[in-house]
Amino acid sequence: MSESVDAASASDDPARLCEEARVLAENGGADRAARLFERVLALGDTPYRARAALGLAVVLDDAGDVAGAREADRAAIATGDPEYGPRAAYHLALTHERAGEHEQAGPAWRVVVDFGNDAYLPPAHLALARLADDAGDFEAARGHWEAVVATGDAEYGPPAAHDLAQRLLERGEPARAQRVLTAGLRLIDRAAAPYAYARLAVALGISYLDQAIGAFGAALDSAGEPADPEVGPLATELLARTLPLRGRGAEAGDVWRRGLADPGVAGQVRARLRRDFGGDDEDADPADLWWEPVVEQAVSDGTLPAVAGEAFGALDHMYALLAVRYADDPAERRPGETHELLGRAVRVPSDYAWGPLLHESFAERLRLAMGAPAPALPPGWPDA
């Protein structure tokens, strides 16, 4: 009689059943593993109840029984076990995340946090931060992001620092973003995670750019009074050249225009705007060169690459038209073809904003070269 009782006790040993179930689950025996985990649960409130419930949840989830898996997760959570309870809540949250059920995932993540197990706090806080951020609750999201960084976790801390810093930059708080990013960088082994390090390093650089933009702007904004004649031109240039780095080219153009419109500093601002221009022809007055205002305007508006593209495109078109005909045998050219070709070439710039200035320049050069009375250009030249 005693031997049968001992055998029954051994067969119902929860520790042995859980271990057998684990081995079966890892070796393709999911159905048998589930039955063993259920036997442990049937034993009632044993020290292995939470472990068995979580094991059953994982096995059922892998088998596609999500509802059963969630029920088992809740059973593990209900035990209050400090290890398997938060793990079950973590698993439960993931099943909801996977299904796109973010509202249901939130409470599960909060249960993970309530358990206070350090191993599961970082992913739980990060998930809650993103849920709050999606809901537009910045303060709640900030608290969770800061909690992740505070854990010192090398996996979840850096993305939390990056996400929080992005929101702080959007809110015009670059100094706070810098502190968060610096803390995030300390968590990364640069050699082991170079991409994560580079991501935060670039964000840190951007935060300094934003802080510089604020400082340069403050130097120019003094209750509407004229800019300081010494500091104003420098601040104007620094602000105008930094704004495009943050995708704010239109604002940079406004900064240049305000500086050029201030008679107290306009000359110095123009000199800084033109610092990269080539030297002027000694015999030419820059005011007489029709393209100078075009280039200056393009620099202030940030459209110089576009203007250069137009100019080179026109030059390429003209050159191709003329060079092909120049290479032909003169005997093969039909009468009037050269004049027609030249007409096609000179019409190209008419499509560009600087085209009329080129045409006016030609008309004036023609007048100066031919004297009075200058030859009359055809009506509507050069487009007609």
TrEMBL record:
It holds the Pfam family TPR_16. InterPro entries: TPR-4, TPR-like_helical_dom_sf. Transmembrane segments: none annotated. SUPFAM superfamilies: TPR-like. This is Tetratricopeptide repeat protein. It comes from Actinomadura fibrosa.
